[in-house]
Amino acid sequence: MKKSIFIIILSFSAVIFAQPKTADKILKEVVDKFERIKDYTVDVQIKIDFSMVKVPDTKATIYFKQPDKVKVDSKGFAMLPKQSTNFSPMQFIQGDYTAIYVKSEQSGGNSLDVVKIIPNSDSSDVILSTLWIDQDQKVIRKIETTGKSSGTLHVELSYENKNQGLPSQVVFSFNLGNMDIPENATDGKDDSNREKGPGRRNLKMSGKVYITYTGYKINTGLPDSLFEQKNKGEK
Description:
It contains 2 helices and 10 strands, in the order H-H-E-E-E-E-E-E-E-E-E-E.
């Protein structure tokens, strides 16, 4: 009798541990980890490498508070992709969507789960997002997003353990296709681009944005007033 009970327990355990991975479970673990971070302040250094466009390196300070409050302070122009200021995985799973677990793979010594997220609404600009999620750390290591009007964006994220799951560096690689931009924004090396009227050029925009994050201050209790937009003339 005892032997039969033991066999039943082993069989039941095997069924539990053999449960297949699901995209929803993987995403929930990432969301749960991020939601432990109530707010953060971080200094960033931004290096932009655009084809045909000269953009100086800049610095900024980013403030974030759950669920989606963001403020960027910069003395100069800071061109920051949306994903560089808000790392919440919720941005990929809002609204009606279908999440599919694709496979597990090894990359850079990390075990990654690959999940595809497909918006079910035709009104969404995003066609498909693919996430590579670290199985152990429960963080997103890589993102590939394809949009109807914004081309394909590749994002690679690096982490340090002391940052509690917030990245130490993010590299954005993109190809936005042809864009109409001011002529004085280019370096003038390519005269083959079609003119778009006086002072305008139609250029193929591609390149990378390198963002380094240092000096995180996490869960310090940032007040809501910090994120309130002041009226013009207020101090």
